[in-house]
Every structure is written in structure tokens, then in C-alpha cells.
Amino acid sequence: MKNILKNIFAVALLGVSFTACETTELDLRTSPNDLADDQADPNLLLNSIQLGYAASMDEISDFGAEVVRIDNMFGGLYFNNYPGDTFDDIWLWMYTSQDYIAGDGLNQQVGITANLNNIVDINANTDIDYSFHIGVGKVLQAHMLFLLTDYIGGAAFSQAANPDEFPTPQLDPGDQVYASAFGLLDEAEALLAADPPTLGAQDLFYGGDTEQWVKLINTLRLRSYFLTGNTAAFQSIIAGGNYIADTEDDFQFQYGSSELQPDNRHPDFGDDYTPSGANIYQSNWLMDNMLGKNDPRIRYYFYRQNDATPGAAGVPADEESLACSLVVPPDHYNGFVYCSVDNGYWGRSHGNDEGTPPDNFLRTAVGVYPAGGLFDDNSFDNVGLGEGGGGAGIEPIMLASYVDFWRGALAGSDAEKATFLRAGMEKSIAKVQSFGSLDSSADMSTAPSAADVTAYVDGIIADFNAATGDDKEDVFAEQFWIALYGGATEGYNYYKKTGYPTTVAPSWEPEPGSFPRTFLLPQNEVITNPNLTQRTDLETQTFWDTNPAFPAFPPAN
What we know:
With 557 residues, this protein is mainly alpha-helical. It has helices spanning 4-11, 37-40, 42-67, 78-81, 88-95, 113-124, 131-152, 174-192, 210-228, 231-240, 267-272, 284-293, 298-301, 400-409, 414-434, 450-466, 469-483, 489-498, 523-528; strands at 98-101, 107-110, 154-155, 172-173, 251-254, 302-303, 365-366, 394-398.
């Protein structure tokens, strides 16, 4: 697991290293009257809410990206890859107020619900108006409730809000959690629409701009109405126009480029740009898909440390550096890249759990978008500390391009759908290309030109218009996948909702087990909460997931 908290906390200049408690209990709602003065400061409590949220988004995005092939998934069997502790940290950051001691001695409490409750209590017992803090906290809490429902089937809310009466709360059913989350968004909008003062609070996302927060609120409603099939409510928000429609409104978490004291770099940059080389494997399916289409984003997403992958076209196999390059692809990989992507795009196929060879200076590293690494200008140099953008990347969370794809999925005609497909691609490509300036050392003459971008977009639209049935949906969904790189929580949801794209590569194992319709419950909470029983499989479906059960759906798994 990446050292997420270290990087997340450093962004807010709250310190470098932290030690978390091992167990998770939902009754750790600390009274603000018992806190030290610095801990009771609502500004610090809001920092804790934002940091717990940002850390959670980084992890949830990784899990979603792995299972749908946007990122690489290591391990052949889904159930073994995602054990009961998968959501332990996310659950902790959602519900508890845990102490983390920074290197400078600052004691910071991390978590969403407990710290939000503390701010509400403080607000009720003072003449100072903390509406901004409470509004922002409720937005982030609502989003996490949506996501916990999407990913584990439900969440604790009604009983979690009353820890004295319910020290071991039960989970609310998913539809009730969604209703509670919508209610939180309504409350947050009422607070933030009045443009309350920030009172010196550090808004890590929108810099205190309450109009932007209201746009985010409506965008969270859009994603949730899309998933639940409430098309009328979705279109009503679109008609109102107050949502994330332009890239300048994008909701994202910004990292820095400081390596030490504090280390505030993008976690993926910290993993890949090291003295010992890259440590992350990129998804062979995604790289091959983008390479085959000549996608203009590929040089921004991925940085190649070499120009050839063993076993690729015209390249000899190499058992030492890439063992699978000697293997004849099995029958279930017919038509898909099994091991080696052309042109030096060196990653791994979905579920490949072979041992790790000495390829850290050979495998493809994360690029300048979104991790703040190197732009791929055909240099084929090795990665190292501080290179490229120095890690000053972002965690994409809710982008304007995502809204275009949701609108396209609900479009009433193919022509309208093609219009939103074009808009989503154009927004995504423009945003990605803007990151090229982070790498001042790059030869940007190798970057795709405006004509290249136009040709690409026009070509995809032509493919979409020429296709029919599943093929048309696959063209659309593949582009949504590519736009989601770096922040793919909604890729998992879209896949469960629609089953597209059907073109994702098969798993390394012919029988990988059921695709996770939800993940297991957080094991630490199951152990300490007698009202919870751990599941024995990954087949429980979220309330809005009304598609056929495993193994009939999704068809590509």
C-alpha cells in the first residue's frame, strides 16, 4: 500500500510521518471539550476532514481502476486480491478521529465523521458561524457515503450518528444510505449557498470558493442519479446549469513537489521516481488500447524507460526480465495482448501474479499526468528523484469530462451521444496536455499537435458512428475509461451499471472467480462489531446494480 497519509498530510503542511491506531470503532466521537486547544480549532478539524477524504479517494480510486483494467491488478483471483482488510483504512478515515503525531510534534486528528460532529458541536456552543466548515464537511461525508455503498454495499449512518446509544452500529441498506447522502448535500447547499466566511480555514480543493462547492454538490447528485436511473432528476440539474461543466471547475486534490520535510508529492510519483527505479506496473490493456488508437494522451500518461518490450513485435523474448515473453498465449487470450505491448510500453496484464524480475529501470513509469512525472519525449532515460514535474500532480476526483460521458450515456439519440463523446474527449485531452508544462526538461516537439488531436477525435467519432450495438457502446466506454486514468472511482460504477466496455482484456487466470460486485466489509469493524458478519464472496450487488448475477454479468469477466 502506498504511503498515502504521509503525502496527503504533507500537502497541508501538517507533518511527515504518522502512526495510526490498529482498530476501528465507530464510538470514538471525541468531545471537543476534552480536546487540547489546537485540536478543538475548527480550522484544524476541517483540515482533518479534507485529509481523511483525500486519502480515502486515492485508495478507492486504485481499487476501482484495478478491477476494470485502467490500472494493473496484481494477483490472479479477485477474492484473494481484495481480502477483508481492503477497506479498513477507508472505514477508519470515514468514521473515527484518530491521532497522528507529526514529526514536529503536532497532534492532528484524522477522519471525516467524528471531526465533522465536533465542528457541529462547537458551532452550536459559540456565536461564531462555522457554516463553511460544516457545509464542506457534509459534502465530503456525503460523497464517501455514496462510495461506501457503491463499493461495499452500504454504510453506517443513522446509528453511527449516535455513538452513545449505538456503540456498535448496524449498516444502513444502500438505498437508505443514498437517501441520507442526498440529505447531507441538501444541508450543505443551504449552508454554502449563503457564501459564509471561511474564518481562515484552509480549503484544500476550491480555495474557499463556495460557488464551486455548490457546483460540486450538483455534480455529486448527477453521478448518483445516473447510477440509480433517475434520469428526470439528472436532466433537471443539467437544465439548471450549475454543475461542473468546464475544466476550470474540476474537483481535484493538488500535490506538491517537495521531497523532504514535508514530502508532498503525488503518491504514484513517490513510488516510481526513486533511486532504484519504478515500482508500479501499468496496465497492458490500457497502454495497448491507447497505442493502437494513437491516443494523444499516451505520452502524458506513461513514461517509457526503454524503446522495446521483450516478446513484442520484432523484439526477442527475454526470460530474465520478462518471463511471460517466452510463453505462448493461452486460448482465453485470443485477440488480446498477453504479455508484451509494442514500442516499449512495459507493463503487466490483468491478474498477472508472476514474481517481480529486475525490471525497475525497464518497466513503464507513471508520466506527467496526473502524477507530475516525466513527459515521454522518446528520451528513454531512467526515472529518478525530482524528475519531470517533481510529483506536483493531482488526484482527479470529479472532472467536467466525466459529466459529458454521463450525459452521453443518457442521450436520446446516437447523434447526441456522439456530441457528448466528442466533448468528453476534447476536455480530457486538453486538460492532460496542459500538464506537459510541468516537465520543463521535455522536448515538447514530440507532443501531439492540434491537428493530431483533431484527427484522433474525428477518427473516434467516425468509429462510433460506423459501429452498431455493443461495438458502439464499447467505443464510447473505452474513451470514458481513458479519460478516467488517475481517478477511476466511477469506472467501477459505470462497468457495474452498463457492462461496457466488453473489450477489456481477460484475467491472467482462466477462472479468476466472480468480478467484485462489492468488496468485503472492513475486517477490523467486523471483528469489533457483533452486528456485522463478514461475507464469504464478492457477489453481493449494490442496490442500484440490477444486472444479472455472476457469472452472466459483466460479460467480459
